[in-house]
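Example record for the data management plan.
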Amino acid sequence: MESFFAKLTRFKSLICLLFLFFVSAGIYSLFHLPIDAFPDLANNQVQIFTEAPGMGPIEIEQLITIPLESTMNGLPSVQQIRSISKFGLSVITVVFPDSLGTYFPRQLVFERLQAAHSRLPERVESQLGPVSTAMGEIYQYVLESSAHWPTQLKTIQEWDIKYALRTVPGVAEVNTWGGLTDEFLVTILPAKLQLYGITIKEVLEALKDNNENFGAGIINHESEQYIVRGIGRVASISDIENIIVKSANGVPIYIKSLGVVSHGAELRQGAATKDGLGEVVVGLVMMLKGENSQHVISKVKEKIAEITHNLPEGVTLKPFYDQSKLVEQTIDTVRINLFEGGLLVIAVLFLTVGNIPAALIVASIIPLAMTFSFLGMRCAGITANIMSLGAIDFGMIVDGAIVMVENILRNLNDKELEHLSKQQIIEKSVSEVSRPILFGILIITVVYIPILCLEGIEYKMFSPMVITVCSALLGSLLLSLLLIPVLCIFFLKRNTKEKETFIISSAKKYYTKLLDIALDHKRTTINISLSLLSLSTFSLFFIGTEFVPKLDEGDLLLEVKEFPSISLPAAIDTATQIERVIKKFPEVKTVVSRLGRPDLATDPMGVYGTDCFIILNPKNSWPLGMNKERLTEELRKNLNDTIPGANFNFSQPIAMRVDELVSGVRSDLAVKIFGDDVDYLQQKAQEVQNTIAKVKGAIDLQVERLTGSAQIEILPDRIKMARYGVNIAEIRTLLQTAIIGVAETQVIQGRKRFNIRIQFPKGMGLEPSDVGNLLIQGSNNKLVPLSQVADVKLAQALETINREFGQRRIVVQCNVRNRDLGSFVEECQAKISQSVSLDKGYRITWGGQFENQQRAMNKFIFVVPLSIFIIFTLLIFTFHSARQALIVLLNVPFALIGGVFALWLRHMYLSVPASIGFIALFGVAVLNGLVLVSYINKLVEQGLPIHQAVKQGSLARLRPVIMTALVAALGFLPMALSQGSGAEIQKPLATVVIGGLCTSTLLTLLVLPVVYEWAFSKNKVLSN
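Corresponding structural encoding:
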């Protein structure tokens, strides 16, 4: 193998052309990479929305949710089914494996949905949610005007702006909060119906029968053909007023004879406000799953610029949330970290190599290897984001090149090789180090592969990093073995003098003394290292744990929960008060609140739920000493003092939506209680809440509100109904017409559509006491009050019914501050197991971020040993000796020492990024041991005594070991110190690698020679 790579250096032109091709392909890939802030963490889900206006949560659950759930249960590969049943709405989420792709699961669900249609109530239609994810909510804007009514703004949004934005490639849907949906309202007077002997059913049929265009075929006349069309659709209030319902004694009775036709507004369960100034209309642009967010946002902005010129005078469209800003900030963080890391690595090369052409040759591998990573990302369909590019360490990339160039430099200055040509010397140099370089970089690369065994969010988060880093490392391997020797032939002179820089000469001076001490006191050296290892291993059990550090998106999202029975006007007033409190803070740029649910219920909140988007000013304009954590605490305190009784939960826009869509909750910890009896669930949830409230670290603690909705219940008395000749259908028609109204047909104006709704006077303005006084027509055409045939009473009832895995559930959720998540949950579990007991048929599960952390850590119990086993296997192939493989493998626990101490020093928890940092660290640490042991083996094979070979080999390999450790550590330094957007995930990984390399390098240079001499002291010569 060694001679194979050496002989390849003779084909210089071919090698240069080959790498020119790969570099060109990499550069092309770079300019065609999609760019995002973070990987898309949402699972592969299909949502089913079913609207049934007027139905309560229990009816929605029994008549819609359960039938649809049971239909979906048999679908292949379904991982989870959960649902929400609310007033007038059912939302079912079906989760599939990512391997099935995006559209195949939708096809499966759609087919089952068609089959289940016959099981649903009449006039109830289901539809699939948009092909988008939480990361797809890329752009939000406010539409406002002081000169236009809310109905006019909503019409502009729905039929002008939304219609235009939907034409932008990559836009899946445009959703709307706020405003009033315009409709034509026919207000029928019950007294007029009685006077003319007309029923509501006849009025509805008259509207439908007199509102349609029709075709009647073709008439041929001479040489022309005429299409016959009937134009019967109504287009105005006048057309509706003049529709004939029936004739009485030859006198036509029109709609206008029975009531008044006017413009009205549909019942709404959502609104939007801004900056404490009142209502606005909010538009949300949702990106198609898998699209390039930067490209789509750019096209959306172009379309909005075009739309803005055509808006009516006085109407303004202002964006308040633009995901491209987060993308730009995150990519800036990556760019700065890579640039600073690259500069540090190059600086180390110049300070340690002592030869400018050689340093430049090694440094050239950085941009060349990066083109391989771009090519790998393009082939794997990975976007450029904080995870895919942020974990690349240029130090690891140049390790192989350092070893190769350092060995070539040394041989070019070896007087014993003066009889050889430069080509022969370089071939000899390649053959000497090709094996350790090959297996060293392969070890670093392969130890990343088990990370792909992770599941869920952690897989989506870290798999792009694995593919990108492995692509760069494999590129650096090919470059080190093939291109670097060719460049040395071209640019290094035969008489090149190898100079020891001040850093290396100083290090060698002190290292010689320390090495002598270590070799003279072997037992003490080993005991000290074992003591440090024991201490670090023991302390690892006391480091707190968490899933991943929270990414700073820049802005805040405040989730507000009020009493479930609150009305929409009251909720709007509360939201306005909240905005005024928040707007007093100078750090806040603007506040936009979304109340309830939008037109397409992608966020199925009740009107008691409000999401406040708090858009912050740049941090450099904040008062001195203010940070995001302090701002959040001050906001929480002010809001609790101003708005008593409301629950506040602080999060971030993307984080909130990802948590909600993936796990169904919006917090760090969710305690889910499953069972059938809602009252019992509510009782036990309160017990759990009281227990968690006593645990240090709990904030934003709240119980999911299932009950508390105020209802007016109509309980028909069937005996009285029989007496008056009234049936249930007539009571239903009366109530629907009197309150919500009945819409059976539409007015079509071009692309615009407006419902025609029949309603009694007052409608939704009825007082609860008025419901019993509504008049219903009996069999003898007499009108009797509804209270004569039914009991009308006020009651507290269910507001929401949440289901998961076919069972009802309630959630107690909270966030954790100033404490690690792992120990917090352990304490909660211990206290809840002691204080909360459940009846048979009820159970508790733990979800939220804790569920992700547990799943990830359970995988790491398998992944870390697998990585170590792979390292050991490759070392055996390298040395053909299990004993030598074990000696080099000692660097793994040596690296652990520094990594653990670094976490302690920086007050960081053991998280998924930190665990991956340990895996990456093991590979780099083993490379140094491999280089050192390989050279000592070579000296022993030449006949040197073990002690002399160990000492001479350690001194000879000091420079490459120091260089590889320094460049790897300094390459990660900008990531460890970065304060930019998205750096929170990079910090633990970089901290572990830097800390681990410090102890690993020290122990490699001191303990490994001691162990080697001790293990082989009885052997004069080693044979590989």
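Summary line stored alongside the record: Residues 456-491 form the longest helix (36 residues).
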